[in-house]
Every structure is written in C-alpha cells, then in structure tokens.
User: What shape does this take?
Amino acid sequence: MTSPVRFALTTPLYYVNDVPHIGSAYTTMVADAIARFHRLRGEEVLLITGTDEHGQKIQRTAEAAGVDPQAHCDQIIGSFKDLWDKFNIQYDRFSRTTAPNHAKIVEAFFKKVWEKDDIYLAQQQGWYCVACEEFKEEKDLLEDHHCTIHTNKKAEWRDEENYFFRLSKYQAQLEALYGDRPDFIQPTSRRNEVINFVQQGLQDFSISRVNLDWGFPVPTDDNHTIYVWFDALLGYVTALLEADDEVDLDNALKKFWPINLHLIGKDILRFHAVYWPAMLMSAELPLPGGVFGHGFLTKNGLKMGKSLGNTIDPFALVEQYGSDALRYYFLKEIELGKDGDFNETRFVNVVNADLANDLGNLLNRTLGMLKKYCKSEIPAFDLATIPPDHPLKTLGITLGDRTIEAYDALNFTKACSQIMELVQSSNKYIDDSAPWKLFKAGEQAEVEVILFSILESVRLAAYLLSPIIPNLSNKIYLQLGFSGDFNHIAALQAIAPFEVHSRWGINWPERTLPKPEPIFVRLESPEEQS
Ligand code: MSP
Assistant: This one.
C-alpha cells in the first residue's frame, strides 16, 4: 500500500501581547481552508498554529498588567483557542514557544549553528521597534523614529553586545534558492521585494539580547537571551514532535519536515523568506516548500489600529454572523496576496447575494419543485444519459479539475467564482427551461432531467466549497440525502471519496428527500439592525 501524500502548513505563531485580532483570524481561516482542501483530497495533513510568547514585547505587557509573563501567556492563549473554535478552524498542533519541549529544540538547533561557526559576538547599535521585535534602518523609520507598521510606537536606540548570525555568508545560496525555485516566495510581487532586498547585500543580524529575562538563555553564555524571532521560527519544528517522541531535533524532523507551506502576512516575509532559510542552511536542514505572504486588511478603506480606534473585534463578528459567512467573505472577496477591505455592509450584501439568494434559494426552490412534481422522490437515474451539451453538464464536468487547480494555486477567489458560476447557471437554467410549464404539458422525463441536473450541480458546489463553508456544505448534503460530515473528513472519505464526489454526474441512489428547510438565513446589514 502506498502511504498517503503528506501536507504540512503553518500560520505564524502569534504574539500574545493581546487577544487575537482580525488579522490573525484572517491568516488562520485561510490556512484552515487550505488544510481542509488537502484533507478532502485524502492527504495526511498537519496544520500548525500557535503562539510566540517570549521577548520584550510580552515581558513589558505582563509587567504593565502586574502579572508574571508565564501567567499572562497562559491566560491569553485561551482566547486564541476559543476564537479558532468559533471560526471552525481544525488545527492539528498548537505550538507554544514556552512549551518545555521547545527549549530543547532551540538549544539543539543553536548548537548546530554555533558549531558551524555561524554565530559570533559583536556590538549592535541601532533602532529597535519592540512591537515588531526588530532592528530597523533609520531610513525605514518615520519622522521622530516612529515605526511604519506601529505608527504610534517609537523605535528605541540600542547599543549593546549581541551574538550575531552570519546571514551574509548565505547571500549566494539564498539567491540561488530564489532562482532555482521560483515558487519559493509567493505571490510574485512579494518575491520581487525579497529579491531586491537580498540583492542590496545581506547583513548579519543579532540573535541575542542582553538585559532581558523573558526568553531562553543562549546555551553558550547565559548573560544573553536568545532573540525572540530565532526562538519563534523554531516553534514550527517543535510542533512536529509526536506526543510520545523523545524530544530531539531528529525526531521532530522525521515525519513532516520539510513543511510544505508557511502562510504569513507580508510584514513578516523577510523573517520567513530570508532569515529562516538561511538558518536552516546553516543547520544543514532541508528547506520548506514555500512561503506565501498575504496582504493586509483595512476597515472601510482605512488602516486598522488600536490607536486609531477602528479595530474589528473578530469575536463579536463571528458571534453575530457565524463562521461560514465570514470565511466565505474573507476567502472569496479578498484575493489572497492582495490587501483587502472589510466593510460590514458590503460583507452582508455579498454573503446574502451568493449564499442566501443564489445557492440557498436555488436549493430550496428546486426541492420545492421536486416535491410538487416528483413527490420528493429521486428514482434511480443515470446522469450519464444527459447529453454533453447540456448547459450544466458542460460546466460541471470540468469544474472539479478547475477547482483543484485554483485551490492548488491558493486562488480562493477563482475557486469560489467558478463554483458560483455553476450555481448561477443553474438559476438561469430553471428560468429558461420553465419546468412548471413542462410539468403541465406532461413532460415528466424532461422535468426530471432539469431538477436532477440542478440538484447535482448544487451537490457539487457544496462539496467543492466545503473547505470554505463546511457547515453550510453539511446542511446541503443532508438536504440532498447524503450522509457524511465535512467537519470529519476521515469518515467522509469512505462515504464520499474525493475522486467521485468532486466530479459532476455521480450516481444518486434512489431516495425520498426530507422536507426542504432553508439552509442559510439571510443576514441583516448594519443599517437593518439599527
Ligand atoms: N510573532 C510573530 C510571528 C512569528 S512566526 C514564527 C508575529 N506575530 S503577530 O501576532 O504580530 O502577527 C501575526 C500575523 O498577523 C502576521 O502574519 C501579520 O501579517 C498578521 N496581521 C497583522 N495585522 C494584519 C492586518 N491588518 N491584516 C492582515 N493580517 C495582519 O508577527
């Protein structure tokens, strides 16, 4: 027996200075949709998310709250897990950088790089943004040394002895990587940014801090603490350990390494596409499959921020509208890789138009007709007998492959649009073919072709959209009399194998369908709510 294809992916490990914001929810829901698609295809998937808990930013946050940093972290991570549950995110590992296993992995990795002679002590002078946990070039700061990402925060001047990692040594190897593997950094616009940055010449970066307690000590010098980013990136490796594994690097790397995809926001691309591969090259480990840097969300066209007072509370949003509606909007309406806007009215309009009207009403209307014209009975019916030029069959038979291609390219906008095209064509097909007239004229066979081809199209749409709207797909499958649960893919695989159910024209066993129920309740816009 051949072993299943494996696919491992990560979100960033989120800082725990505060409860999760909509940006972290966005990355995590996209990662979940990718993971679900690979699981649907029968692959063995590992979705890693988690939290980045060390460093000055967290230490200061805990100090300000008057609590011990560990107690602070323990308290905040509950809100991340809670939010992921609310968004129906099925992660396999939650990697915490304060987990005891992690200390050993960081130490082992540090030693490999140390023995390679890639670490040395030198003086670090520069402007440090604590919110980014990153040294910044003076030319990259705003007036008065404010950070461009955290515009309300001033970078701090540092002049201290640090350990440095010889990044410059890996310049040529990194350039070769970007040249040999054009997909390593995506999308292309981000890849170009990174290549430009590297071409300007890489400088070694400091990987330790002094006067900072909250972190791991440098194994060779406990006056220093390991830099939070050096520690955090390795959280991806620690996450790969199985519960009963002895904690060492080899065990962590044996099954799911190299990770196929790091999904991150564009602001942390340099760490993942430059520093991280160089660290791995130094440790002589295989490199990940790729890094995808998504865009930033704005609210009503404006940059979001606490200081600007216009953040979006993801908890309130998901409680009000439910996970499927939000997942659909963020995945379809924001092209992955580009910046995107959240406007509540637009969100409600899009979701109502696509999910309530086009999809929900289509199913309801068709089931209503099935009841009236066929007593809700689906006889044994071979969709193969429908001629290939039938409008829904023509679209439907290629949809599976086109959708796989779009999902593989992480183009969720295209995947959703193509699937919705079949749904919209089904609506048009009812209007054009007017089954009510055919029924009156006694053309029962024709009525059946129309209704079954529409139901098959709705089924296929539900199946292919399931990585994005799993709960709604479940409701549709149930209404159509299919068993299986898109939130339990392993069990679903046996009943609805991908190779069969991802294609238009499956075999429908004889059945009587249950009473039609609305599958998606129209959302109220903020204007209607007030
Ligand atoms: N702790 C580091 C990551 C370490 S990974 C080994 C970190 N954490 S973070 O919590 O600050 O950022 C998490 C993610 O949220 C990043 O991918 C970032 O791009 C994303 N976002 C933060 N604000 C965002 C928006 N407004 N819109 C979309 N994503 C944004 O960085």
Observations:
- Residues 344-374 form the longest helix (31 residues).
- The pocket of 5'-O-[(L-methionyl)-sulphamoyl]adenosine is lined by residues 12-15, 23-24, 26-27, 52, 232-233, 235, 264-265, 267-268, 296-297, 304 (CB under 6 Å).
- The CA atoms of residues 406 and 441 lie 43 Å apart.
